[in-house]
Design a protein that fits this description.
The chain is α+β, with helices and mostly antiparallel strands and 246 residues long. Helices cover 31% and strands 22% of the residues. It folds into 2 domains: 165 residues, Alpha-Beta Plaits, CATH 3.30.70; 71 residues, no CATH class. Bound molecules: guanosine-5'-triphosphate and magnesium ion. The site of guanosine-5'-triphosphate has 12 residues, from strand 5 and strand 6.
């Protein structure tokens, strides 16, 4: 069976949903019975700062950004408990996957969700006031339980960020993988094809990567403009690696 024309979307079950033991409920809401969608991949991720910042790169510089990063890293809900700081990442697949998951999720702000769409997933979320050292309210954090890709283009970027090709069975992949012909190492913020002490191996020859990542790495290596930064590529291949950039 061909996967041409099949839609995929990324869902993250966020730390507040895990803390409130809502995982089973959320999986039920997204089940094939309710949405017509199926799992293509799933993993438990301890979110590094690098991954969090890549995921929410569009919000860099906004007032709520630091709180958003702490939230997705699990630091807000599980301070001092690294073993509980995680999210569940899921790729759902099926017709109109992006729209269906966004519809089931509801509006971003839980207060708006309760008013506009009672019963949607995010209507079960909460909004937390953020205060400074003097106790003055300086903003808010939206604890809205899940992340859902907003468009098919965003879904592709996000699925490739959270999942390596081999995390998804070949018969369920919709984005092109490619075998790396050469090794790539990451060291002190730079890219290299030779090992130096302290380097982290991104790929060995023969490892499978997303084709678009290998294309970007070759451009970066040549010093040419690339469609994404080195950090974008590195963040994904170091998901759940010990000592990853946190
Ligand atoms: P995600 O599925 O998490 O990506 O949410 P979204 O697509 O509905 O919203 P968006 O991508 O614009 O924002 C990402 C996250 O940033 C949201 O889930 C919120 O937690 C937070 N956020 C977005 N906009 C605001 C805002 O105006 N104020 C605050 N405090 N948080 C925001
Ligand atoms: Mg979004």
């Amino acid at each position: 069976m061909s996967n041409k024309g099949v839609d995929q979307t990324l869902v993250l079950i966020k730390p507040d949903a895990l803390k409130n033991s809502l995982t089973g409920y959320l999986l039920s809401q997204f089940s094939e019975f309710h949405t017509g969608l199926r799992f293509a991949g799933t993993k438990v991720v301890h979110v590094s700062r690098m991954l969090a910042e890549e995921h929410y790169t569009e919000h860099r510089g906004k007032t709520f950004y630091p709180a958003l990063i702490e939230y997705i890293m699990g630091l807000a809900h599980f301070p001092g408990e690294p073993h509980r700081q995680r999210v569940i990442a899921i790729v759902y697949q099926g017709p109109d996957a992006v729209e269906k998951v966004r519809e089931t999720s509801g509006p971003t702000n839980p207060h708006v969700a309760r008013e506009k769409k009672p019963g949607c997933i995010r209507s079960l979320g909460t909004v937390v006031p953020l205060t400074n050292e003097e106790g003055e309210v300086i903003g808010q954090r939206m604890d809205n339980l899940i992340h859902a890709s907003a468009t098919p283009q965003e879904a592709e970027r996000e699925i490739k960020l959270w999942f390596k090709p081999n995390d998804i069975p070949p018969c369920l992949r919709i984005y092109a993988p490619q075998q790396s012909q050469e090794p790539f190492y990451y060291n002190n913020g730079g890219l290299s094809t030779t090992y130096e002490p302290g380097s982290t191996c991104l790929f060995a020859p023969g490892d499978t990567a997303w084709e678009s990542d290998l294309h970007a790495l070759h451009l970066i290596q040549l010093g040419l403009p690339a469609p994404c930064t080195l950090q974008t590529v590195v963040a994904k291949y170091l998901v759940n690696e010990a000592g990853e950039g946190s």
